[in-house]
Amino acid sequence: MVFPLEELVKFKGNVYEITSAASRRAFQLSMLKDPIIEQHDDKIVSLGARQLFTEEVRYQIGD
Asked: pLDDT of 27-38, one tens digit each?
């Protein structure tokens, strides 16, 4: 899986925010040792970003 650059270009929100969320999601996936990682050739950052762009996973900025 390749990092979803086409979604990043189309993204109208804060790019720093979505990048930070993708990084955090990748960390979560690596710590959980989620079996979904094996299906995506261990490209955790790309998987985390794809989950955010497709809204499979949502993020929220805390106070």
From this structure: 888 888 767 777
The structure tokens 């996973």 sit at 57
**Cα 6 to Cα 2, 13, 17, 50, distances in angstroms:** 10, 14, 17, 11
- d(C-alpha 6, C-alpha 24), whole Å: 21
Element (H, E) at 62: none
Three-state SS at 41: coil
Q: How far apart are CA 40 and CA 46, in angstroms?
A: 9
Say whether 17 sits in a helix, a strand or coil.
helix
pLDDT tens for 1-25 read 455 677 777 878 888 888 888 889 8
